Structures are given as structure tokens and as C-alpha cells.
Amino acid sequence: MASLDLLTPHLSKIKIPNAQQLIYKDECVYSFDNPESETGLYVSLVSFLGFGRNYVEQYFQKTGNAVFLHICREKKPVPEPEKTGDGPEKKITRLAIGVEGGFDPDSGRQKFTYTDHYSVVVLPGFHTYPWPNSALPDVIQKSVQAVIDAESPFKIAEMEVLAGTWDGEAREVSVHAVNLKQLDNGIKIPPTGWKCAKCDLTANLWLNLTDGSILCGRRYFDGSGGNDHAVEHYRNTGYPLAVKLGTITADGKGDVYSYAEDDMVEDPYLADHLKHFGINVQQLQKTDKSMVELELELNQRTGEWNTLQESGSDLRPLHGPALTGLNNLGNSCYINSVVQVIFRMPDFVRRFVEGAPDIFSNFPEDPANDFNIQTAKLGVGLLSGRYSFPGEEGGRQPGVSPHMYRHLVGRAHPEFSTKRQQDANEFYLHLLTLIERNSRHKPNPADCLKFSVEERVQCTESNGVRYTQRAEHHLPLPVAVHAATNAHEVRQYEARRAQAEAIGQRLDPSLVVRPLIPFQACLDSFMKEEIIEQFYSSAVNKKVTARKITRLATFPDYLLIQLKKFTIKEDWTPAKLDVAVDMPWEVDLSCLRGRGLQPDETQLPEASSDTPAPTYDEAILSELLEMGFPVEACKKSLYYTNNSGKEAASNWLMEHINDWDFANKFEPPGSRPDAASGGAAADETSVEQIMGMGFTRAQAVRALTSTGGDIARALDWIFSHAHELDAPPTPAAPDRTLGCRDGPEKYKLIAFISHMGTSTMVGHYVCHVLHEGRWVIFNDNKVALSENPPKDLGYLYLYERL
């Protein structure tokens, strides 16, 4: 044992953590080294940050903090119990991975026991003192014991997430359950022989708990299900709750849906509500499929789950640099897929992987909450190969677990901070926003994805035109279902499937026939002319009908294409189009090139400052907001429907909910943009909020108009433009490119992300990446050589310029 005298110079700096102190004892803050790593983990007894062997010396040299608790974890396999063969398999009840009731990624894997071994280490020289050790100074003993006893920050974060997360099975108690109105109409429900009151369906039946009506459920996007009679009944009567017959159990549970709350709910008084109609729950048995069982069956029927994971192939596992798997932290597959794709672009590699030494050299007080550090940590972890080892049975790698990154990028976000499944495209855009905010003094790597979209609007009365540009990071393409090349075959397949289901059989999922959509048809849908109502023409000074076409003014180095597969059905429920789109391996997109103002075109004059401001019916606006729609979208709906009523406005909202600018700040078509900035005028509430931080009105307005009205970005803009805050704005010539890179329009496919499931809120994501000339599938911590990349079933596609 080293001399205790080595500890003496450092005792004054040693701290004893309190209950609020976060102690990073699970993983290095700069790498994915942990106590299980060969060299263990070093936890500073001053800052309580954890470091792998590669970073602990740098930290010591930078800070002088020399005393650490060293943790090494011993891992031993648990002997497998003898299999009797008569035990029931765990039932899958949720279309998800790594969460309760879902597919267990650890199922069938070797189990282990873990034993932690501790010692106190002093740098330089890595002098070691065994633990426990009564000879150590009292302050060190108390500090070490507190670190050992402390709760893991990962577990703390997990509990915070779970505290506010709906897990898909735990349901909120309906606000209508307590005082539910039940009519004394004499209806008694028989124990068998149920049939929809409006059609001949005898399955998927829902009992309305107010009047006892038995009606069929919603029609699913694939044509199965019911005929929507239960939801129609709600629209006509307003009776809010219904229970699915056949799902009721003897303990008074069942699938209860609240049409008023638009969600599956809990009815704690279900037994009493059923008794009103003569139903004794103690005599009931569950006979019908629950909603989650139907979700699983639907995916099994379409075969999407197996196809996208290439489950029918004996895939060869891969490992090594840039072939590192990511563990699923409970519905984190949407994060895993996006980051695997992001780090295929050289700009991201240069910034966060090759630039990692510079990023790490800062050693901030809390690197676990430094976005650039955690992004660099993730990039190095994925591409270095340090954590990519041969996998176990089934091709699983040990992989890395991005706990810190997930917590950081999701913090304070209403959706990404939860453990619910999310839309990978929305996360992609959220991540690029975070990268932009954290690129204040560095080149933004997302610029390789940025392009200028050009819109041409023509007044139908004067024929004058106006060109406007906006910057985008993805190209959303409509799915042209009407253009399917195999419509006849699809109809034949649907007829065969209906016949099979009528006699209780199921067709082989591998034989499913999906509508096959040509990629060009999706491009044509994007490029087609759009009619704009209520356009204020500055040429004739009144509202007219206008025609709009959208093109690209620039083409980026990397183009991310989103197929708009997720939609809203007529009954307002989310759905996904089960189609195949013939996405090209290589493509020439020159047809999308915009040309700007042409010599034979007359430009519309600038709108005058006295252009009439739009008016919104406040009563209807309030009702729409209560329905959960964004305020700017509600304003648009009222504008385009001339305040004609709630129904017209809500119908407009449902028709346009997938628009790229659905929730963006609304500027009436043809209105005059802010002259100084070329953007929308600053919102007065936002101006006052920034002025409350000590800035002048002029500074606040300039920052907001320069950043599209986003307060967080405006504050970043203020701090990065301090030298020019009070200088008069310099009028700039219109720039069609918006500073975006431009180049040839020819691309090749290098990655795509696929989703399995019927909506963004359920299911699973995987991605396929072109790596060193061969396609690789990344399915969380399973990394393998792809034998048949299912590119026609993807959702997001990354193309690289040829």
C-alpha cells in the first residue's frame, strides 16, 4: 500500500457529496468506459465526475484534482436452469422493444452476477489504497462511502422520465368516469350474440356506457376492423365512454375508450357501469382481442416487422470501426437510428469525431450536460471501434448505452424527454436545432444538409409573380397512393385476405401485396401546382386566388428525403400508409431545380404597410386551442375558412396537419414581410420577454426577426452578434440561396431509416447504411451484413451527391 503521506496535500479539496449531488459512477463523461471495462472507472472525490483510463490523467493535469475512487466490476455468468419445456412463454402485449410488455432484447441471453471492487487512487503515479481501509483519513472514508451509497444519475433520470410517462398500458382515469351519465332506458345486454346495431358485424364491438348501444369500431388503414359506427354514434350523441365487448374480465377491467378525450382510458367504476345494463363482470371471460393485441396482429399480418429486420435471413454479424451497436434504452430506437445515419456524413465526423480532442480540452464543470462534449463522445464511441466487439448468439453486440446523450437531447422537451416512441423525423429536426444552437463559434456540420426551397406564387388576376425562399433540412414527399402500378393485384390480394379471415384463417405474411408507388409519382405530387385562396395581391389590392409551385433553389451535399407515410384518418386517428415506394439507388433530381424570376415575368409590387390585418374569431380560436392544435395553425384555419365556424376550421386543420409549416408563425399570403430583415415581424410578447433580460427594444426586434421569431435562437444571435447589435442593419440584395451550398442534382442512396408499426407512437425503427461498399443493418445493438436491404419500405432516406 502506498504511503498515506501522498494523500495529505489533497485533503482540503476532498468533498463529501450531499443528497442532491449527481455522482457519475456508471460511465466516463468523455467515453463509454465503465466499471466493467478492463481498466475500470475513476470517480473524482472533488467533482464526482467519472473518467475512463484514457481521460483521467488529462483531467488531473487540467484541474489538479488527484484523488479518485476506482471501481472495477467483476462479471460472472449465472448457470442456466434446466428447462422443463412446460413453462409458458412470456406474452408480448406491446409493439415495442425494451419496455414492459414489449419484445425483450435480453430474452434468451446469458445472465450474469456483478461484484464491485473498490480502491482509492492518487495521481500522478496511480498510487493505490485498498477499500475498505480504516487507516484512510476520515474525510476520504466519508466521501468514498457516500459515493458508493449514492443513487446512479442514470437511475435518477430514468425515474424522472417514468414519473411522467404513459407506458402504453397504464392509462389515465377518464374525467368522465366519476359522474358518467347513464340512461334509464331499460336496455339489458345479453351475455352472448352481440351484433352491431347498424350493420352485420359481430366482432370488434363497443358498448356505449351511457345508452347501452352496441356498435362496431373504427376501420383500420388496411381495410380491416369495423365500419366506424361507434365513433359516429359519439359524434351524434356526445356520449363519451365505450368498452370493447369481449375484453372485459372478471376483475372489472377492459378496453375503455374515451371519444371525448381521444384516448384509451381507465374506468375505475367499470363494473358498476356495466351492472347498469345487467352485466355481472364476475361471470365474464375475456374473449376478444385487446387493442395492443390487434396492433401486434396487424403487423404480423402485413409482415412488415420481419421484412424490415430481415428476420428471414441468416445475417452475418459485423463489428469494428463505424459498426458499433447502440443499446435500446426503452423505445430509444428512433434516437439510435438517427445518430447512426448522422455520423455517416464527413462534416459531422470532422466536427465531433476528429475534433473531439479540442472539444474535450475545455473540461467544463459539468461535461455530462455539455451538448458538444456528449455529441463528440457518442461520435467517437460509434466510429472508433473501441466498443464494437463480436456479439453473442443472435448477433447482439455489447454495444454502448447513450444514457447521458438521451437525457441531454430530450431534456425539457415534452416528447423526447419521455420513454414513449417518437417520430424519427421530428427527432432529426430537433437534433439539428440543438447542433445549430451549439455551433455559435464553429462551422455548423448540418450545413451539408441545408438547402433553399423556392416558392413561386402567381396572382391569377394580374399574372404578377412573387418568389420567396426558406431554408430546409429535409424534403418531405407525399406518397402518391393513386399512382400505384399494381392496383389490380392489391385488390385481388385484399379479396383473398378477406375471404381467409372470414373463415378464421390468415394468409402467409410473406405473400402480402402492397401498393407499389413509383418514386417519380411522389416527385410529381410535390411539384404539382397548388391553388391558394385568400391571397392578398399587391397588384390589385384585394384577396384573389393564386397559384403556387415549389422547387429547390439549391441542392445540398446530402439530401434527406422523408416519405410522408404518417397521416390522420377521417376519424382523426393516426395511421401509416402500408405501401412500397420504388426508391432509386441513384437519382437525377434536376426536375426539382427552381430558376427564379424569368425575363418574361412581372414581379408583384411590395405589399404596402396598410395591408389589412387578418381578424380571427376569438371564440372559435379558443375552441380549436382546447382541441390541442397549435395557435398559429388555428389562425391559418380561421383565415382560410373566413371564420365560418369550428367545423370548417377543424376540417381544414386535419387536411393540413402534415404540412411542413403547420405550426410555423402564420403570415397571411401576400402580406408584407419585415423590410429590414426579410422575415416576419417580431411577436410583441417575445420582444417584451427579451427586453425583460436587459436588452433594448431595437435589439430584441432585430434578434427575433433574424431568427424567425424563435426566442432561444434570438438570444444566441444576440450573444454572437454583440459587436453589431446597435449598428444600423445593412440592406442586402435578395439571395435565392440563403447562403446554402449548391451543386449538381445527382445523388446516390447511402442510408435509410425504416419504421414498423401503425403510427409514430408505437413500433420500432431500424436503419440500413452503406458502409465501405456494402449495406449494413443497424437494429439497435444488432449489427449485421444486410442481404436484402428493404429500401422500398423505408421512411427517411439519406442521399449523397455523386
Automatic annotation (TrEMBL):
EC category: hydrolase
Binding residues for substrate: W206, R218, R219, Y220, F221, Y257, Y259, D262
Origin superkingdom: Eukaryota
Recorded catalytic activity of this chain's protein: Thiol-dependent hydrolysis of ester, thioester, amide, peptide and isopeptide bonds formed by the C-terminal Gly of ubiquitin (a 76-residue protein attached to proteins as an intracellular targeting signal)
Gene3D superfamilies for the chain: Cysteine proteinases, DNA helicase RuvA subunit, C-terminal domain, Zinc/RING finger domain, C3HC4 (zinc finger)
A GO MF label: cysteine-type deubiquitinase activity
Record-annotated USP domain positions: 324-802
Domain UBP-type: start-end pairs: 172-281
Domain UBA, chain residue ranges per copy: 615-656, 681-721
EC number(s) per entry: 3.4.19.12
Binding sites annotated in the UniProt record for Zn(2+): C196, C199, C216, H229
Biological process terms in GO annotation: protein deubiquitination; proteolysis
PROSITE patterns: UBA, USP_1, USP_2, USP_3, ZF_UBP
Active site residues per record: C333 (nucleophile), H764 (proton acceptor)
The keyword Ligase is annotated on this UniProt entry: no
InterPro entries: Papain-like_cys_pep_sf, Peptidase_C19_UCH, Ub_carboxyl-term_hydrolase, UBA, UBA-like_sf, Ubiquitinyl_hydrolase, UBP13_Znf-UBP_var, USP
Keywords: Hydrolase, Metal-binding, Protease, Repeat, Thiol protease, Ubl conjugation pathway, Zinc, Zinc-finger
Family: Belongs to the peptidase C19 family.
The protein's name in its UniProt record: Ubiquitin carboxyl-terminal hydrolase
